[in-house]
Specification:
Layout lengths: L3 H9 L4 H4 L4 E2 L2 E2 H6 L6 H4 L6 E2 L14 H10 L6 H15 L4 E5 L1 H15 L3 H6 L9 E5 L8 H4 L4 E5 L2 H7 L4 E7 L10 H11 L3 E4 L9 H8 L3 E5 L11 E5 L1 H8 L17 H16 L2 H20 L4 E6 L9 E6 L8 H10 L4 E2 L1 E2 L4 E4 L7 H13 L3
Parallel strand pairs: 3-13, 5-6, 5-7, 7-8, 8-9
Antiparallel strand pairs: 1-2, 4-10, 9-10, 11-12, 12-15, 14-15
The structure holds pyridoxal-5'-phosphate.
């Protein structure tokens, strides 16, 4: 058995060991001070984790986006008082609907959660028995139609509800696929160009057949106009991620649109427990954080921000172009992650490294920098960086490519 002395030694190597032992000191500071002032603790370092400059974009694996002080103080505020969860969601939903000039809204657990509860509400309506029945769709509408090119991983948010996905290629095929079991038509904005049916035509088909339409716009701010565009166009339900361009909590999202459908969607959410979405909880902190993030986003000078991103991308591009054999391409994705972006490629006979080598050198260097891309190029965006970090990225990328 370990002696008390050895045990103390081991425990003192663990974070909070002082607390476990009732000691008054931790990391050279009185423990009550440490606990009262979390900002003085470097949690990620304590846990042995490296933080990094995010030159990649909004990726769940990289924890999405950073929240502003206004958002985190709304979250801290939320943690200090009790409030009725449904009443809070009602009020915040009304406020968001007012801000976004749509009929109704709710804060969801991400865009994925918005898809699940949105579809569940379409199927159940306000019928509590049907709410409790899902994901068993026996006797209920159980088919969702979408274009084949829109069938990406996230449609699992729909199959979670207990439905079958029916894929089609053309408007004609879509109309043929509609039957008495069709619950909803679903559109993926990010893949607009890959599908034959575009948004307006899609909405028209839904209206013609009296079937609700849903559009996934998870990564579609900017532009800010998208927050209004699709509800006004006539989509019954519209989903956005809270923790991408909106820079709210990564675990939150927005479901906008038809009031009756969103009320029905809410029946599937906590505090109610006989539901498929009990695990998709958003508590008051995230609800407030999401609201404040949205308010801030709407107040933002979007033109100024865009110009900043453009000049940051140009700075990085100019910097790496000074390396022999390197070429760059500045591009803006038309749908989803619609921000100035950079591709960096090089002649591998001159710069003798693969893009994977460069990505891991950037990641493992100081500071650590995360980028994306494939085996042909490095992909960079600056919109998820803190201003000023573009200089470090420009310098490091040039160093790595010139093999300094
Ligand atoms: C990110 C994303 C989602 C998931 O959004 P969360 O907010 O993380 O739940 C769904 N659809 C698309 C197209 C996305 O890009």
């Amino acid at each position: 058995m370990a002696s008390r002395r050895e045990l103390l030694k081991t425990l003192s190597m663990l974070p909070l060991a002082g607390g476990l032992l009732g000691s008054e000191w931790l990391h050279g500071q009185p423990i009550n001070k440490v606990l009262l002032e979390p900002a003085t603790r470097n949690f990620f370092k304590e846990l042995g984790l490296r933080t990094f400059i995010n030159a990649a974009g909004t990726y769940t694996s990289m924890t999405g986006s950073l929240m502003s002080k206004e958002v985190t103080s709304a979250i801290s505020y939320g943690a200090t008082e009790y409030v009725n969860l449904d009443e809070l969601q009602d009020k915040v939903g009304e406020r968001i609907a007012e801000l976004l000039e749509c009929e109704y809204a709710t804060v969801s657990s991400g865009a994925f959660g918005a898809m699940t509860i949105g579809l569940a509400g379409v199927i159940s309506g306000m019928d509590e028995k049907k709410v409790a029945q899902l994901p068993d769709t026996t006797g209920l509408k159980n088919e969702v139609i979408l274009q084949e090119s829109h069938n990406i991983v996230y449609t699992h948010a729909l199959t979670n509800v207990g439905v079958k996905i029916i894929t089609v290629k053309t408007a004609k095929e879509l109309e043929k696929a509609i039957n008495k079991n069709t619950a909803m038509l679903w559109f993926l904005n990010a893949n607009t160009d890959e599908g034959e049916i575009k948004q307006e035509a899609f909405v028209k088909l839904g209206k013609k057949h009296g079937i609700p339409t849903f559009i996934d716009c998870a990564a579609d701010v900017p532009p800010v106009e998208n927050l209004y565009k699709f509800t006004k166009m006539g989509f019954d339900l519209v989903a956005f991620s809270g923790g991408k361009g909106l820079r709210g909590p990564q675990s939150a999202g927005l479901l906008l649109g038809n009031k009756n459908l969103i009320k029905a969607a809410r029946l599937h959410t906590p505090p109610r427990g006989h539901t498929i979405a009990r695990g998709m909880k958003v508590n008051k902190e995230e609800v407030l954080g999401m609201l404040v993030a949205l308010e801030l986003y709407l107040q933002k000078d979007h033109i100024k921000e865009w110009k900043m991103w453009e000049s940051q991308i140009k700075l990085i591009s100019d910097s790496v172009l000074s390396v022999k054999g390197v070429e760059t391409e500045i591009h803006i994705p038309k749908y989803a992650n619609h921000v100035p972006s950079l591709k960096v490629r090089w002649d591998q006979d001159i710069v003798k490294m693969t893009p994977n080598d460069v990505r891991s050198e950037l990641k493992n260097g100081h500071p650590s920098i995360e980028t994306v891309g494939n085996d042909k190029e490095i992909g960079i965006t600056t919109w998820m960086m803190e201003p000023g970090q573009e200089r470090l990225v420009a310098q490091r990328l040039r160093e790595v490519l010139s093999n300094i």
